[in-house]
Amino acid sequence: MGYQFMRKMLLAGLFLLGASFVVHAQTDRPKPAYDFSLPREDRIKLAESAAPPEISGKATVYLLERTGYVKVREGTNGFSCFVDRQTLYNMEPTCFDAEGSATTLRSRLYAEQQRANGKTEEQINAAIEQGYKTGKFQAPRKPGIVYMMSDHIYLLVSGNQMLHYPPHLMFYAPYATDEDIGSPPPGAGMPHLIRAGRPDAVTIVVPRKETGH
Q1: 25 falls within a domain
Q2: pTM of the model as a whole
Q3: Banded model confidence at residue 211, pLDDT cuts 50, 70, 90
Q4: Mean model confidence pLDDT for the chain
Q5: In angstroms, rounded to a whole number, what is the distance separating the alpha carbons of residues 17 and 208?
């Protein structure tokens, strides 16, 4: 896909974690990677890019608007595709399976709704944490998969840099810690946790690129 924001990124360095991570130089105030001004159809395709077409083509699709997420298609396979944003600057095309759609996705939809209502990130995070305690939100109740196989994943790191993260898969690991997966060393091409110890913790696996023999 030829998105306008792709041309605005400047190459700044390289980091390895089983695949290449391209770091882009930014100003002190980086611009959000997600572009609300892109045509609606392009933004839908961006959400669908998270998973293979055999999956995303039958999934429920949520479109990120300034007012929050809007369901633009009802799926038939239990999956839900959308562009996640763990920060206002991130762009994370994501497809949850049926279990994630019934659990973790609820907190993601809530977060964008609260942003649209003017809540701060601190207020949103506190409300979600409380929601898990009260049962408003639920951790995944069984193993499952999250597809993040898009080539258009951008994450804010170190406060003012955007990281182009490689396509990867995630697996639910509620409340897991690094010790639970053997404390793998960083940058060794091994699975690793994000949001360790939290109900929405996941194990990330970056598939290795095939090489000729």
Answers
A1: yes
A2: 0.84
A3: low
A4: 86
A5: 10
Tokens representing residue 23 in the block: 């770091």
Taking Cα atoms as reference points, which of 168, 87, 77, 89 lies closest to residue 125?
Answer: 87
* Over residues 68-79, mean pLDDT: 98
Question: How many domains is the chain built from?
Answer: 1
Q: Is residue 59 part of a domain?
A: yes
Please tell me the predicted confidence (pLDDT) of residue 207. 86
Residue 198 lies in a domain: no
Handedness of CA 31, 9, 196, 205 (dihedral sign): positive
Assigned domain for 99 exists: yes
Closest CA to 93 of 81, 101, 103, 105: 81
pLDDT at 157: 86
Q: Quick one: tokens of 4?
A: 């306008």
| 3-state SS record for 119-165 | CCHHHHHHHHHHHHHHCCCCCCCCCCEEEECCCCEEEEECCCEEEEE
Distant-in-sequence, close-in-space partners of 58: CB < 8 Å, separation ≥ 6: 75, 76, 77, 79
Range(s) of the domain holding residue 19: 4-169
